[in-house]
Design brief:
6-stranded antiparallel β-sheet, globular, disordered N terminus
Length: 137
């Protein structure tokens, strides 16, 4: 299912983003998923108010290609527009071990509480398509 992307919400804030990165400081996939989701919501929506970010428990998750790891979701509530954004946000992060035994993550970040918010079941369907790709030249 393709992700339909609205370029920006009023005020110039991107409506949604996704990406992957290494998690070299994480002690576990559970820690990586929770911290990654929390940092994305804080940095994109709630900054400078850390107390406006809530991070849920990490839970086991397996993609359709068989990658196992941990998934966690963080949200912001009560963003007032004086910081980075005038919208609340949500990030869902999936952390897993790659074949080199490195912890890596894939994260979907988007605005929350707007008409075109991507519903969590849709985010989970997209997340289920994450797969490993050989990047050897």
């Amino acid at each position: 299912m393709p992700v339909r992307r609205r370029q920006r919400h009023p005020g110039g804030h991107p409506a949604r983003r996704r990406g992957s990165r290494g998690e070299p400081d994480a002690r576990s996939t559970t820690e990586a998923a929770r911290e990654n989701a929390r940092l994305w919501v804080y940095g994109s929506y709630a900054q400078p108010s850390k107390e406006k970010v809530t991070t849920g428990a990490a839970k086991p998750f397996t993609t359709r290609s068989g990658i196992t790891g941990s998934v966690a979701t963080a949200t912001s509530t009560g963003v007032d527009g004086r910081g980075r954004c005038s919208y609340d946000g949500r990030a869902t992060a999936f952390a897993f071990e790659n074949p080199a035994d490195e912890t890596v993550s894939w994260t979907f970040v988007g605005v929350r509480g707007v008409d075109d918010e991507v519903p969590e079941p849709t985010v989970r369907k997209i997340l289920g398509t994450v797969r490993l790709v050989d990047s050897t030249p």
